[in-house]
Design brief:
The structure is a homodimer. Chain A is of the alpha/beta class. Helix content of chain A is 42%, strand content 15%. Chain A has a single domain (2-401), classed as Rossmann fold, CATH 3.40.50.720.
Chain lengths: 409, 409
């Protein structure tokens, strides 16, 4: 199969490209290296050092004996994606080429507009380019469980049967996102569903929970590792807690810490995505997939990191801070999953067992974490005055209303 | 009250600006004159000639003795809208400044992207500028009933109570739009709801059905008239049927013509919008309003136009064409309306009575219609080969799949 990975330089993009190579597929890839620049913009870097794409391509050749075709480019440029699809004619395309941070999207008008433009217009260009050059290719789109918010009913897998005033229909499950980033993903999901309807494109929309982990089974060489972000803006919650534990900083759940999400390990995430690529939906249809392994509250995560850290001699503190977000601190959360189990996928990893491995991996890079202590600390102090004063990231007005977000997805 | 009308040069924007002036409010207004240019782009013009904005401002002074503050500008330019709000400090803002044509948004990638960018980014800029300069102002946003699509259940007014797997919640009513334009409006509705949630802005989201009519009661002078579009791209269905009847062309419902929408007259639409501006929702909340007067199928409209036209000696033919759209030709359609009746609004006009007045108004401008016969004719022949060959508007691929749209909203 010919697979194209868009956003191949990212936390998930790179491991999926490796997995596809390892499975013997012909892989092409693109990235605009935006994440590398944007993480630098907030004064941080990847906990685990990653080589340049040039070196990565060479390594793939050495380790797997495979040719990874890479092209630098931006999906906001229609001619780029159009030409690349025309050249490569992939059977499947996975799109990770999006601004993926909720807090980044909330910084100010420029970052909010950038998020909308990059994600929504990038996806529109991709859809039109697919219609033009590969109308029967399968698009696997990374969405997020965050699109659904936290309703007081079970979260259906894309659609649900409802009865209203005595009549019945199968309708899209309502979306209630919690950041401009999450909304941009909702807009994408909606636009893709429409392209499938009018043009007969084929798509899978994956609503994935927050991913944690430092490696996949394909990373046979240390240099094959993927990036690992830990700063306030780009790191996700469990990855950040592990870094805080290693760097000797307190873990800082918000308020009661009852905010519950569905988590999945990097290895399981990549396995599931590979399976979805290898088993596409029926031509001309849209398949919606909810993907996660376990529901955990952020306080449970903090406690598990503390326990594992303490066992490794790290002396981990938990110091809850007032919740700066507009969100329910305790809520019902049950996400339906039918598609992946029906394809035979069951997650093999769980948070409790993975945390020690993550901590051990990260302890090797403790110096890199401590060097960027400021970028981690943003979280610890962000509900206080100091952070608002010292960081240019949070607009004064938003700070006044106390709205910032830690990206849980 | 200080009211700002964004998109004040348009079919609805101009009459609403007049109504606000007539009610004694201080009115400021902006427009980028995009519609004038875009209608020219498709080889058409307004059936009823309209003066320049300069002349309009003078007329308002002469007729109403009021100063209408007008500024040319584009909502995609944050500094424009930010400065204008800072200067004017309006209590209420009504946003018509959007690309409003479904067929226009479907022409090709450039028009689709323009629609997303203009509407979504324009609204983002407006929301941030409101937060910055007038956080307690009331935003009245023009949405469309088309955001909901045609579900097999009653269409709720924004939210509905659902029971799912034994649990209950009040959720946003699912959106199932039918064009890039309609989806851009859904994205706007979603983004506005989020700005209300996190910043405490105040908004009314009006889901209005297609509007018909040639005048409002405020147009005491012929020169105060609003534009009236009739071409394939910019005209809405009933307005177009009236023009076809006057120009001696057959009316062309799609297929069985059972496509049903909720229609409202221009006069009633403006009365309702003025009422919503004068009776804002509670501060910090979002009010969703469904607004229309009567549900009619397009075949019923065609028959009513034929009857009225025949009585006026026009000899009107109805010639159904195959439906080029991806839509249900017959479907359930019941839209709930609670907010406007609770405010004491009941529509006074109905399609059957208004059609003769519209035909009579348009007959004065028959020459202008016949001169742009080509632009009208696009509709009649669009399901055939000729139109696809002669028009550059429809991309070859979309034509091959037979997808074009007549804007019903």
């Amino acid at each position: 199969m010919k697979v194209m990975v868009l956003g191949a330089d990212g936390y998930l993009g790179w491991p999926l490209a490796l997995r596809m190579v390892a499975h013997g597929h012909e892989v092409s890839a693109a990235d605009n290296f935006y994440t590398r620049k944007a993480v630098e913009e907030v004064g941080s870097w990847s906990a685990i050092p990653i080589p340049s794409m040039e070196e990565r391509v060479k390594l793939v050749k050495e380790v797997f004996g495979a040719d990874l075709v890479f092209k630098e480019g931006d999906l906001r440029d229609y001619s780029f994606i159009s030409k690349f699809l025309e050249e490569q004619k992939p059977d499947a395309i996975i799109d990770f080429a999006e601004q993926r941070s909720a807090p980044y999207s909330q910084i100010d008008i420029d970052h909010a507009v950038f998020t909308m433009e990059n994600n929504v217009i990038g996806t529109m260009n991709l859809l039109y380019a697919m219609k033009e050059h590969v109308p029967s290719a399968h698009l696997l789109k990374m969405g997020t469980l965050g699109e659904y918010g936290t309703p007081n009913v079970d979260i259906a897998e894309g659609h649900f049967e409802v009865e209203y005033h005595g009549r019945k229909d199968r309708l899209p499950f309502p979306r209630q996102a919690g950041s401009w980033y999450h909304w941009s993903k909702v807009h994408d999901s909606n636009n893709i569903s429409f392209a499938v309807k009018i043009w007969g494109l084929t798509a899978t929309d994956v609503h994935q929970g927050p991913v944690y982990g430092t490696r996949t089974d394909d990373m046979r060489d240390e240099l094959l590792r993927t990036r690992f972000d830990f700063d306030e803006v780009w790191g996700t919650v469990l990855n950040r807690y592990c870094v805080e534990a290693v760097a000797g900083l307190p873990l800082t759940p918000y308020g009661e810490g009852g905010q519950t999400r569905g988590f999945i390990s990097l290895e399981d995430s990549i396995t599931a995505l590979a399976l979805l690529l290898e088993k596409p939906p029926e031509q001309g249809t849209m398949r919606v997939v909810n993907q996660y392994a376990e529901s955990k509250s952020v306080m449970e995560l903090a406690q598990m990191v503390k326990e594992a850290g303490d066992r490794l001699g790290l002396d981990v503190q938990i110091r809850p801070v007032p919740d700066p977000r507009v969100e329910a601190q305790r809520h019902y959360y049950n996400v339906e999953r039918h598609v992946l189990p029906a394809l035979g996928f069951y997650p093999k990893h769980n948070v409790r067992d993975e945390i020690p491995a993550m901590l051990t991996d990260l302890m090797k890079y403790r110096d890199r974490l401590v060097e960027k202590r400021e970028a981690i600390l943003l979280a610890g102090s962000k509900a206080g005055v100091e952070w608002r004063k010292t960081s240019s990231l949070l607009p004064r007005k938003a700070a006044a209303r106390g709205f910032t977000q830690r990206s849980t997805t």
